[in-house]
User: Which sequence fits this backbone?
């Protein structure tokens, strides 16, 4: 088993790990010859899950991976440890970062980040950050599967995450559950209510994906013809805590965020990462290099 | 005279007003937000939010109708609804007619402020509002300041009668939020009857002097003593606490006191922790009018610049020991 790479975009890797910080204590890192996957499972049955992938070219150069299982490697790591290690790679004077999978004395595997930087006086300093990891076998990895969720009724592009986040932060004190609704008119509503206060925020002019014409409702006004938008609203009620956890993905400065509502089952949110981590005009020329996919289960009353 | 009915909605609206920028209202409400619920009184003159604590502090924020972009209040409908209710609304002896066209409800004040600040930005920081208390106060409230309007939330506020929700429709840059707050029937208000008894002492002081004084006061002291006299020192604030005593005196000089009137010498004590609750209102004001009546009740009237005019925040305190009566009997009389 061998893993070695030059980390050329440590900033993006850090921001991805920042997005998953506080979700839970540990996460799984699955490395293949093409992609890096981070998987976070908070609670098998009722919690949020995050499945992400990013092409290795967006993060590494001179990427070498070898193993007995299709040249794939599976690791479990502590999120906080990796975040702290990656933070040391930031800052002026850093010349390069190498990532290696190493067996330390005593046989314990670590993901080692070797950071070469230049001090103020011009001398080269090497800093080594070791993140202890647990190796998973192919069988163990195989048992971890993406959750099966029935097809959603609607796919809608979300408004800028920072807008949603600032409002959600204000609304969080008012209830432990939030209702996310959307319709094919490009409208999305976010609602929180308790005994004393009821707030609904309306976002308009959002893009919806024309998803599946065979499931068009027959009960719309005047009967549906193709091209006639339905104003039927689909709603998913989820834990406010989970909604806020997903909003942490603002760290990756996503190009696009698509929200899929599967009524009575889950909210599935696709956060697309541009390799430069920019949004706006810069992102237009920059095809997405990866995504974070959040599965947020609907609250069972 | 019935206020202008909007072409807004077909049915009768009791109260509806539009605010171009919520910031002035938010800043005023924050000065009395030390209690979770506030009484909101609405009539054609505007809105008054009142909180009370421990039956010896009443604080009020006056938000005049002129501060709104549009303001419509149906007095006839209010009178009609009040008659229907026949609940013990406060009967103010000298203003019987006026009282019946006023609408009074109790609102969750902290939730109201949270709703108004919905678009302010994450984690309690408001976009662009980073001034400290010692800066010029006008920039905090002046809605005409272009810097303030950037990213400003507009609000339409409405209420349709006792039992209905208090509604806020907020808008900022195309995003709209509808907030509905539960309303409660008001209980008989705590009326400290400040104006029922002659004012014996009055002065107007620049708020910065008072801010300095408040900062010097020893917080370990239970009481703060305020003394106004016809002889030097004319105005004195002092505390006695665990760490010693503090004593601030002010002479009747033009630089410090804008006006001074004293009919009889008086020294009264007030609960320091309650006096300090007025700090935020003090911080926002240019000047403070201090009045003490014959029974030793104290009124701070903070003059806060808003738009082109002045707004007021009032704090009224019952003394710890009244000038002429024991505290218990006095408090009971205040409640009568």
Assistant:
């Amino acid at each position: 088993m061998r893993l070695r790479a030059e980390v050329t975009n440590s900033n993006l890797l850090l921001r991805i790990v920042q997005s998953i910080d506080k979700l839970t204590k540990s996460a799984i890192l699955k490395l293949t010859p093409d992609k890096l996957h981070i998987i976070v499972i908070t609670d098998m049955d009722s919690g949020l899950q995050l499945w992400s992938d990013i092409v290795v070219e967006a993060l590494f150069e001179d990427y070498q991976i070898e193993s007995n299982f299709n040249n794939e490697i599976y690791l479990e790591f502590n999120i906080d440890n990796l975040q702290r290690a990656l933070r040391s790679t930031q800052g002026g004077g850093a010349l390069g970062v190498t990532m290696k999978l190493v067996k330390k004395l005593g046989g314990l595997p670590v993901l080692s980040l070797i950071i070469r930087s230049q001090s103020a006086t011009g001398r080269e300093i090497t800093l080594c950050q070791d993140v202890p990891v647990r190796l998973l076998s192919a069988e163990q990895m195989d048992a971890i599967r993406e959750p099966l969720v029935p097809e959603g009724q609607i796919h809608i592009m979300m408004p800028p995450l920072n807008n949603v986040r600032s409002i959600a932060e204000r609304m969080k004190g008012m209830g432990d559950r939030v209702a996310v609704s959307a319709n094919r008119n490009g409208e999305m509503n976010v609602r929180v209510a308790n005994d004393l206060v009821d707030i609904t925020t309306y976002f308009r002019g959002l893009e919806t994906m024309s998803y599946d014409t065979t499931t068009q409702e027959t009960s719309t006004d005047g009967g549906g013809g193709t091209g006639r938008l339905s104003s039927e609203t689909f709603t998913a009620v989820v834990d406010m805590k989970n909604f806020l956890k997903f909003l942490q993905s603002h760290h990756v400065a996503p190009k696009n965020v698509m929200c899929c509502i599967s009524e009575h089952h889950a909210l599935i949110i696709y956060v697309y990462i541009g390799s430069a981590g920019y949004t706006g005009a810069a992102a237009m020329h920059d095809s997405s290099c990866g995504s974070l996919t959040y599965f947020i289960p609907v609250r069972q009353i | 005279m019935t206020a202008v009915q909007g072409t807004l909605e077909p049915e009768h609206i009791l109260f509806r007003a539009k605010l171009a920028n919520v910031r002035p209202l938010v800043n005023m409400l924050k000065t009395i937000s030390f209690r979770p619920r506030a009484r909101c009184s609405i009539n054609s003159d505007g809105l008054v939010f009142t909180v009370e604590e421990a039956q010896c502090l009443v604080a009020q924020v006056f938000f005049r109708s002129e501060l709104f972009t549009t303001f419509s209040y149906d007095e006839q409908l209010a009178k009609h609804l009040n008659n229907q209710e026949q609940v013990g609304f406060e009967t103010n002896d000298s203003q019987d007619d006026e009282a019946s066209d006023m609408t009074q409800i109790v609102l969750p004040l902290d939730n109201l402020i949270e709703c108004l600040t919905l678009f302010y930005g994450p984690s309690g920081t408001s976009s662009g509002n980073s001034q400290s208390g010692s800066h010029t106060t006008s920039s905090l409230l002046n809605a005409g300041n272009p810097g303030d309007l950037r990213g400003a939330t507009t609000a339409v506020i409405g209420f349709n009668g006792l039992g209905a929700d208090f509604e806020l429709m907020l808008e900022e840059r195309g995003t709209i939020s509808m907030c509905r707050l539960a309303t409660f029937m008001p209980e008989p208000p705590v009326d400290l009857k400040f104006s029922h008894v002659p004012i014996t002492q009055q002065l107007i002081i620049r708020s910065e002097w008072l801010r300095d004084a408040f900062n010097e006061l020893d917080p370990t002291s239970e009481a703060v003593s305020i003394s106004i006299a016809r002889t030097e020192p004319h105005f004195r604030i002092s505390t006695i606490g665990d760490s010693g005593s503090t004593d601030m005196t002010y002479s009747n000089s033009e630089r410090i006191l804008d006006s001074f009137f004293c009919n009889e010498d008086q020294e009264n004590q007030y609960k320091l922790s309650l006096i300090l609750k007025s700090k935020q209102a003090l911080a926002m004001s240019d000047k403070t009018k201090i009045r003490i009546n014959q029974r030793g009740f104290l009124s701070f009237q903070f003059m806060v610049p808003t738009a082109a005019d002045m707004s007021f925040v009032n704090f009224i305190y019952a003394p710890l020991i009244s000038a002429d009566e024991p505290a218990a009997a006095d408090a009971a009389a205040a409640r009568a």
In short: Chain A has two domains: 2-142, 154-297.
